[in-house]
Amino acid sequence: MLFDIAAMAARPRYNLLASLIVPRPIAWVTSSDASGRLNAAPFSLFNLMAGTPPVVVLGIGNRAGRPKDSARNIVETGDFVINLVSEELLGAMNVTAIEFTEDVDELAEAGLATLPSHAVGPPRIARSPVALECTYTRSVELGQGRNLIIGEIIYAHVEDGVVLNPDRGHIDAARMNLVGRMHGGGWYTTTTAPFRLPRIPVEDRPRTQSPSGDQVSGSLR
C-alpha cells in the first residue's frame, strides 16, 4: 500500500511512522532549570547519530504551544542526562510520562532515587543501567511545534555487570535488559533475544543467477 505522507493529517501520519520505525530506544531525560528544579521525562524519538563526535539527537514537541520542560531546561542550562530504561524500571518511567505541571517533581512521584552526575548539573537515575551525561550543542526548529535537540555525550555511567571489556568498549547489551518503544497505544518490546549476523567480506559476497542466467552479486547496505 502506498501512503502519500505529505497528504496525511498529522495524527495518522505520526501513527503510521511511529509504527513503522520500530523498535526505538528510549531516552529517559533528567534535566533541571536554572533554579535547580528537576524534571524527568521519556522520549522515544531519539538516537545516537555519530560516534565521533559522540552526537545524540532528541525530537521533542511543544506542549500547548510552549517548549516542554525538558527542552526548555536543556537549552537554558546547557546540559542533561539520558538514562536508559530497563524492564524493571518501565513502571517508574511510565509515571514520569504523566503530563504533570512544571512544579511537580516527576522523580519523587515515581519514587526514584538519583545519584550526582560526574560533570553536569542534573543527576542520573540511580537504578538505570546506563546514564549518559550530555552537553547541549544546538536546536533545529522543524516547524509545527517540533524541535531537534542535539547534544554531545561527555561521560557514560554503565552498570559494572554488563561491561565485558572497558578498554575496547565491549558491553553485554542483552544483560542490560533494556526496553524499546513500538507502535502507539503503550506498546513496548524487550531486547533480551539478540542475534548476531556478521558482515560479509566483499570477496565472499553471495552469487545469484540473473534472469538471463548470468551470475550477479548482491549486497546489503
Report on the structure:
The chain has 221 residues and is mainly beta. The protein has helices spanning 10-20, 69-77, 90-96, 106-109, and strands spanning 27-32, 38-43, 46-50, 55-63, 66-67, 79-83, 114-115, 124-125, 130-143, 146-158, 163-165, 170-171, 179-181, 188-190, 207-209, 215-217. The strands form five sheets. Strands 1, 2, 3, 4, 5, 6, 9 and 10 form an eight-stranded antiparallel beta sheet that branches. Strands 7-8 form a two-stranded antiparallel ribbon. Strands 11-12 form a two-stranded antiparallel ribbon. The model has no long low-confidence stretch (mean pLDDT 92).
Name the descriptors:
221 residues, mainly beta, 8-stranded antiparallel sheet, two-stranded antiparallel sheet, 4 helices, 14% helix, globular
The SS-based structural class is mainly beta
Rg over alpha carbons: 20 Å
Q: What low-confidence regions span 5 or more consecutive residues with pLDDT below 50?
A: none
Could you state the order of secondary-structure elements as H and E?
HEEEEEHEHHEEEEEEEEEE
